[in-house]
């Protein structure tokens, strides 16, 4: 079906020069340069290029891979993602972590990963992370730290904990839960609270791996979060199985703000929160009462046990429970930890305001930043006579406490974490680190003896030695049950509120603000807005027209006495009566993320939506930061749609060429990327960055189009701007057989290998950038500065020792992870390696291997009738090809 021409941005039909002026205003001055000045600049550039080629540079960083003396080890542990367990394998070099991959034996990761798992490496090396006690700005030695904790514990136990109030960020850790119970028993007068801005409960969507019909009512189950990898893997497994069997597989999504789940839908309904609730209510009570609900109910009934209904949190809890009872699906607010049953942040705030708090202990989290807007926790903290913060980050909350105890880094700790399904996996130290964990701290308060490792072993009836064995895992324990609520009758629908609704969304990169200090997360573009280093208020095209707004125009949102200013970002496919904003920005003490973006918590209450918001344009403009700021529609067929059983997209042979590539080696490497499987999650991009020592360049350089990512995700639309179809396209180096970048290099720094790789020889490169100018895919990146000196990047001991760290003035690009190819050849007897992007992909959209082997997976993919080349009219014979997106339903519906 012809869905119309591809487009990327609203207003993208403007002339290319106008687009360049819009995105690169600093280049407009170039128009003032006359011919004489241009010749002078060309001469100076040539001289500088020659000089850069003669510089010695940093000898240690010029060293080729393998020149360092290093020893690598793979170690299993479990990361905490929003408090839930995510199993990983950490690769260390000389005892220091350098790369993280998913654990194939863990139910949440399945050997794959996401942004948050990959970014954990950089968080470990955060230079702002304290490693000792901070006493009102001063530092204390480790001996004083432990003495102070012991004195606090003795004093607290003598009074039974009277006046002691402890606020905990809940984590699904059986040992932490046990230590809380021990502390409550030893300190009966103490009061415990829990706060996490995004609920710990994981409403896993079951049955995706066998589903043929999926309906989502505002549930972004393919979006960011601890369940993203498992949901994405199950979704694609079910879709592939259905299509391979010749059966239909469709997904319908009704949503207010565009999401990754909606972008992947076969049919999408743009609906405000009130309409979504009406559809949900009709499904629960009488599907015939609403035409859309009737169609959904018929599809689910026809699919039987192969139908899945997922409902988002904006639908009232009782209604979600009724739908789960009728159609199956996630049980609303299923607890993952007993800590969720503790009183919340409003209760501790009331105690502070009442003067009941002698000592306030805050164990992790950042409540001074992310407390609900109606809860004055920040102001109430002054009511505590003494305060102590235990955490890894010197954040807003830590700055307000009298004492800051450094928490041991997660990668250096012992512990345990419960996954979404109740299975528990151990947390093992895979790196060095100082400090004290919340488990140890609570044990000391309770008078329980033992090291962190011993405490975890006691929880599971094991020996400390058992925990160190890679094969050991605790016995699965049942999930804590949330209090059951009987549903006798659904409450009536609320009247539609006046004004606009504001949707608060977890950010795709910094989540709730926990990764705001992480340069990899900040510089990674949001898959839907395309923004890096900040957020914006997303707004529907029709609403933008009504207020005469353009991208970057500053707007003020008001709700009662509270207000928030932020730039606008027009987002195709958003409901007109809804605004959207991502959480996690506007931090004041977050290292490289300080002062970046707008703090959505200034308006956010307890729920995902805020009604009655008013909007006003301030008349100011903010320059938005985009990792790929200048995108032109070079190829109107960049993303292609087809149907199962349709004729081959490309069946004609390549045209003649002056270059006749010779396949001189036995193996010929190639890659195929399935656009039907790509969900735009960016896991491949950040995995490539972690594997290949790609630097962070910062917001100013990113704004100038100098972000260094070797692999970018392009987003395309087709159809109406109020509800277009959306597709994502990963774009690495194509490794063309007739590569136009190779013959233009004056020093032969880019060449072709006998195995078909387009290679870069870094110490030959003199930085003319001719190769980048001649690359039609624009996948080559230039080191304008020595970015490695920036503290936002990893120190030398944290870089991948197999990959050369590049200097200033050098071009770089995707290498098909040549270091993994060589390692497989030398260390693994010549096996076929997995590239970093391929290994991370949750949906296995990327296939890599030997295209000269007709039985290889990549060869089979390239023989698919869906296979095609990007910019195939240029006759470049790229080794990277694409499989077209499958369109089962023909597009969106308003």
UniProtKB/TrEMBL annotation:
Residues 669-699, 724-755, 756-785 form the 4Fe-4S ferredoxin-type domain. InterPro entries: 4Fe4S_Fe-S-bd, Asp_de-COase-like_dom_sf. It holds the Pfam family Fer4_11. This is Molybdopterin-containing oxidoreductase family iron-sulfur binding subunit.
């Amino acid at each position: 079906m012809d869905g119309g021409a591809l487009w990327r941005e609203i207003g993208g039909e403007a002339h290319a020069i106008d687009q360049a002026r819009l995105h690169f205003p600093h280049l407009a001055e170039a128009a003032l340069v006359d011919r004489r000045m241009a010749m002078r600049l060309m001469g100076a550039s040539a001289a500088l290029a020659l000089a850069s080629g003669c510089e010695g540079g940093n000898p240690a960083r010029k060293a080729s891979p393998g020149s360092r003396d290093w020893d690598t080890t793979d170690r299993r542990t479990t990361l905490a993602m929003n408090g839930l367990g995510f199993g990983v394998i950490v690769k260390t070099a000389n005892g220091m972590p350098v790369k993280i991959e998913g654990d194939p034996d863990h139910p949440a990761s399945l050997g794959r990963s996401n942004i948050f798992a990959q970014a954990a490496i950089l968080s470990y090396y955060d230079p702002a992370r304290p490693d000792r006690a901070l006493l009102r700005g001063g530092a204390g030695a480790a001996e004083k730290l432990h003495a102070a904790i012991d004195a606090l514990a003795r004093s607290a136990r003598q009074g039974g904990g009277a006046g002691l109030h402890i606020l905990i960020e809940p984590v699904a850790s059986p040992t932490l839960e046990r230590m809380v119970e021990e502390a409550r028993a030893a300190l009966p007068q103490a009061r415990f609270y829990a706060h996490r801005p995004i609920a710990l409960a994981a409403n896993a969507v079951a049955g995706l791996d066998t589903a043929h019909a999926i309906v989502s009512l505002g549930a972004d189950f393919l979006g960011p979060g601890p369940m993203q990898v498992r949901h994405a893997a199950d979704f694609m497994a079910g879709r592939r199985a259905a299509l391979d069997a010749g059966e239909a597989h469709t997904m319908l999504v009704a949503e207010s703000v565009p999401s990754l789940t909606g972008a992947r839908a076969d049919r999408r309904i743009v609906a405000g929160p009130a309409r979504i609730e009406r559809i949900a209510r009709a499904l629960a009570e009488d599907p015939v009462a609403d035409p859309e609900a009737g169609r959904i109910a018929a599809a689910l009934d026809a699919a039987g046990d192969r139908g899945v209904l997922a409902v988002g949190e904006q639908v009232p809890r009782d209604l979600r429970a009724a739908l789960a009872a009728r159609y199956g699906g996630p049980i609303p607010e299923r607890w993952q930890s007993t800590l969720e049953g503790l009183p919340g942040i409003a209760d501790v705030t009331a105690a502070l305001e009442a003067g009941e708090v002698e000592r306030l202990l805050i164990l992790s989290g950042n409540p001074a930043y992310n407390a609900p807007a109606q809860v004055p926790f920040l102001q109430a903290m002054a009511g505590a006579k003494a305060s102590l913060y235990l955490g890894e980050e010197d954040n807003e909350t830590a700055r307000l406490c009298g004492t800051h105890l450094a928490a041991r880094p997660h990668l250096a700790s012992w512990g345990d974490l419960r996954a979404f399904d109740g299975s528990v996996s151990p947390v093992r130290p895979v790196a060095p680190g100082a400090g004290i964990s919340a488990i140890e701290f609570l044990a000391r308060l309770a008078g329980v003896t033992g090291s962190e490792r011993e405490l975890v072993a006691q929880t599971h009836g094991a020996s400390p030695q058992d925990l160190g064995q890679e094969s050991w895992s605790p016995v699965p324990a049942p999930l804590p049950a949330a209090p059951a609520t009987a549903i006798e009758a659904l409450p009536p629908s609320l009247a539609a509120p006046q004004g606009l609704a504001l949707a608060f969304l977890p950010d795709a990169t910094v989540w709730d603000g926990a990764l705001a200090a992480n340069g990899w997360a900040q510089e990674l573009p949001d898959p839907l807005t395309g923004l890096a280093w900040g957020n914006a208020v997303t707004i529907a095209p029709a609403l933008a027209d009504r207020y005469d707004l353009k991208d970057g125009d500053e707007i003020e949102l008001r709700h009662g006495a509270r207000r928030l200013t932020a730039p606008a970002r027009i987002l195709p496919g958003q409901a007109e009566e809804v605004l959207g904003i991502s959480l996690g920005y506007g931090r004041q003490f977050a290292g490289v993320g300080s002062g970046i973006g707008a703090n959505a918590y200034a308006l956010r209450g307890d729920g995902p939506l805020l009604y009655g918001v008013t909007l006003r344009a301030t008349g100011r403009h903010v320059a938005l930061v985009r990792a790929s700021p200048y995108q032109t529609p070079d190829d109107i067929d960049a993303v292609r749609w087809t149907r199962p059983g349709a004729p081959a997209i490309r069946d004609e042979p390549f045209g003649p060429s002056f270059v006749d590539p010779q396949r001189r080696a036995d193996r010929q490497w190639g890659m195929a990327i399935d656009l039907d499987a790509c969900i735009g999650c960016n896991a491949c991009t950040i995995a490539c960055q972690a594997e290949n020592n790609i630097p962070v360049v910062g917001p100013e350089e990113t704004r100038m189009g100098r972000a260094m990512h070797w692999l970018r995700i392009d987003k395309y639309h087709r159809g109406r701007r109020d509800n277009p179809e959306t597709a994502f396209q990963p774009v690495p180096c194509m490794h063309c057989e007739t590569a136009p970048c190779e013959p233009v290099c004056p020093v032969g720094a880019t060449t072709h290998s006998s195995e078909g790789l387009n290679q870069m020889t870094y110490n030959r490169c003199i930085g003319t950038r001719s190769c980048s100018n001649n690359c039609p895919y624009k996948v080559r990146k230039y080191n304008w500065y020595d970015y490695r000196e920036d503290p936002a990047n990893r120190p030398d001991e944290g870089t991948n020792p197999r990959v050369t760290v590049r200097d200033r003035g050098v071009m770089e690009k995707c290498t098909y992870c040549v270091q993994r190819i060589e390692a497989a050849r030398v260390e693994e007897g010549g096996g076929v390696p997995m590239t970093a992007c391929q290994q991370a992909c949750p949906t296995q959209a990327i296939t890599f291997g030997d295209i000269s082997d007709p039985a290889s997976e990549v060869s089979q993919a390239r023989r698919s009738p869906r296979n095609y080349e990007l910019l195939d009219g240029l006759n470049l014979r790229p080794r990277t090809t694409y499989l077209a997106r499958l369109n089962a339903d023909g597009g969106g519906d308003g």
